[in-house]
Structures are given as structure tokens and as C-alpha cells.
Design goal:
Largest sheet: none
Distance between the termini: 22 Å
Helix content: 40-55%
Number of helices: 2
Order of helices and strands: HH
Radius of gyration: 20 Å
Number of strands: 0
Strand content: under 5%
Shape: rod-shaped
């Protein structure tokens, strides 16, 4: 049986970059560059795509398995 993988998720400050002392978390409302925002968004989309691909692969493997003596899940 396959091993269940869990991705470590850091605190919200790590994900958003909105921690104390950062531009995004600055009291004066500092701005990120459009390029940086775009790169971070593309990285997030790639992360979601990878997760979706993993789920699709697992579902395909389940669908390809022969039925059990107890029947199918349909």
C-alpha cells in the first residue's frame, strides 16, 4: 500500500511574507514589485498543479484496481 505523504506547512507569515519587518507587513504599506508578485503566484500555481497531478494519479491507480470480493464502489 502506498505511503501517505504530508507536506510541511510553515506559519502563515512564511507563506504570505507579511511578517513583522517585511514590506508586505510594513505599517507604511510598502509595495512588492509586480515581478515578485507574479513569480510568487506562478510558484503557487505550480504547487497546486503538482498536488492535483498527485491526486489524479492516485485516483487512476484506484480505478485500475480489480474489484474486491465485496463488490465495487459504484
Amino acid at each position: 500500500m502506498g505511503e501517505r505523504l504530508h507536506r510541511r506547512q510553515g506559519p502563515r507569515d512564511d507563506a504570505t511574507g507579511a511578517g513583522p519587518g517585511t514590506k508586505a507587513g510594513a505599517v507604511d504599506g510598502g509595495q512588492q514589485s509586480a515581478t515578485q508578485v507574479r513569480q510568487e503566484m506562478l510558484a503557487a500555481v505550480e504547487d497546486v498543479k503538482g498536488s492535483t497531478d498527485n491526486v489524479a494519479s492516485a485516483l487512476a491507480k484506484l480505478a485500475a484496481r480489480p474489484p474486491t470480493p465485496f463488490g465495487t464502489w459504484d
